[in-house]
Amino acid sequence: MAWTPDQPIVSCKEVHKAFGAVEVLKGVSLDVAKGETICVIGPSGSGKSTLLRCINALVPINSGSITVEGQEVHDPKLDKLALRRKVGMVFQQYNLFPHKSALQNVMMAPVTVLKQDKAEVEQRAYRLLKKVRLEGKEQAYPGELSGGQQQRVAIARALAMNPDVMLFDEVTAALDPETVKEVLLTIRELAEEGMTCLLVTHEMGFAREIADMIYFTDRGVIVESGPPKDFFASAKDPRTKEFLSQIL
Amino acid sequence: MEWSWAFDWAREFYRETGINLTFVYDSFDRDRLARGFMNTVYLSLICLVLSVLIGIAGAWLQGSKLVWTRRIVQGYIQFFRNTPPLVQLYFFFFAVGSLMPTYENRFGMQEPMLDNFTWAVISLSFFAGAFNVEIFRSGIEAVPTSTVEAAESLGYNRLQTYRYIVLPLAFRVCLPALNNNLVNLVKTTTLAYAIAVPEMLYMANQIWSDSVNVPETMTFLLFAYVFLVGLLVWAMHSWERAMRLPGYGR
Ligand SMILES: Nc1ncnc2c1ncn2[C@@H]1O[C@H](COP(=O)(O)OP(=O)(O)OP(=O)(O)O)[C@@H](O)[C@H]1O
Ligand SMILES: [Mg+2]
Fold it and tell me: B175: Cβ–Cβ under 8 A, 6 or more apart, which residues?
């Protein structure tokens, strides 16, 4: 059964994940349509990062199913490379390769993993770094860039693989308020261009503006979800209310 | 040649002081020592490269999912770290060597497959390699898992992650320890003397037996090792500087 763009691009069904005896995800289901931006919010330790890591097959799941473009992510026969071409991920701690310049960070994966033509990739890398407003910083090394700049290199690095879906895991949590803006601006532009984005974030204002759907997780389950208007105005579950009252 | 002034000087020096630098003015001794010096350089370089390769491969195998692969590597390390290198050399040359098949050379004599130089290379490379495995492993452990995860999320497989991300970063962490071990290796090449590999110590020994100038040759020998090790340390330090991550530390 081939996937068509009118079906969910990312679909999680009853996902269970335990680390040893600790059950971190206890049946999470969510669908993301192509071009949609969803935000996952929730208290620390509720399993948000774990969910994103499961979607990218960085950690295996115990039961349930996750599909990306109709392809089962946790099928043992899955070509992980094919999946990771479709799904880009950006981390809280940027995780750039410190021994490579910004430009090389962006170029490396397309050249070594996808074996694409170097000259062509280089052009694309310049274009992407310009897109994230880092023109002129191509030759700088991660250690020579600010946190916000590093995070934008990381976004460009993920985009260089031409993904269909982008996962952002608290990408502004390690930044100071000034640089948060730069990074959010970049993400907003991506979302507006029609990239499918899954964000884990604590920036409620940003989530409200940008998200098509908000999911609130607590202790491994999705407690409540809805479009931002409804979600922030009329949260029903007491856990959601408490969380929102603390954070807003 | 233009060097004749040096030979004349050494002869004059001997007449006046009694310090006999045969390996300067006597062409036979000079050639012997030069050959010994070059053999030490070759032996060191070959073992250096091989031991580093063994270290890289061993550290990779230690990360294997297979229990037995890890155990074998661990056994290898323990064996070579906890036994004297001279005994290892004897073991390879006399014990393993005697079990190896021989072949007939062009004079109709039976010759061993591997000569003593090769055995020295094998023995010393495995000796230094065992330490290198440990050194590289500690370097690899210092690479943050989050960095490895980033590579994975970009579609790198395990080998690509190792080659392009983990090793280059691990190398930087373990260069000082590697430096130490390689200095040790160069000094340990003198053990090859014990199985008559014509390296520098062996040749020097022949010179002082023939020419009875032990103190002179010994002194030269020490300075020659200071020079060789100094060269290696200098090269390693330049490498360390060149590899320093821009934007971190000084
Ligand atoms: N590799 C792991 N091994 C064992 N336990 C883990 C592992 N990764 C996460 N956990 C546990 O899973 C739970 C959920 O972690 P997760 O990182 O998904 O939370 P989170 O919602 O992203 O929290 P935060 O907002 O602090 O990032 C935590 O209790 C954590 O201790
Ligand atoms: Mg998290």
Answer: B236, B239, B240, B243
Alpha-carbon span B153 to B165, nearest angstrom: 13
Chain A residues near residue B160 by CB distance under 8 angstroms: 112-113
Query: How many other CB atoms sit within 10 Å of the CB of residue B231?
Result: 12
Contact B154 A97 (CB under 8 A): no
In this complex, the residue of A85, A141, A154 whose CB is nearest that of residue B246 is: A141
* B residues 55-84 lying closer than 8 A (beta carbon) to A: none
Task: List, for residues A39-87, the tens digit of each pLDDT value.
Answer: 999 999 999 999 999 999 999 999 999 999 999 998 888 888 888 889 9
Residues of chain A with C-beta less than 8 angstroms from the C-beta of B250:
none
**Angle (deg, nearest 10), helices B27-62 and B214-243:** 40
Tell me if residue A208 falls in helix, strand or coil.
helix
The model's pLDDT over A83-140, given as tens digits with 9 standing for 90+, comes to 888 999 999 999 999 999 999 999 999 999 999 999 999 999 999 999 999 999 999 9
Beta bridge partner(s), residue A41: A216
Subunit contact B146:A95, Cβ cutoff 8 A: yes
- The CATH class of B38-200 is mainly alpha
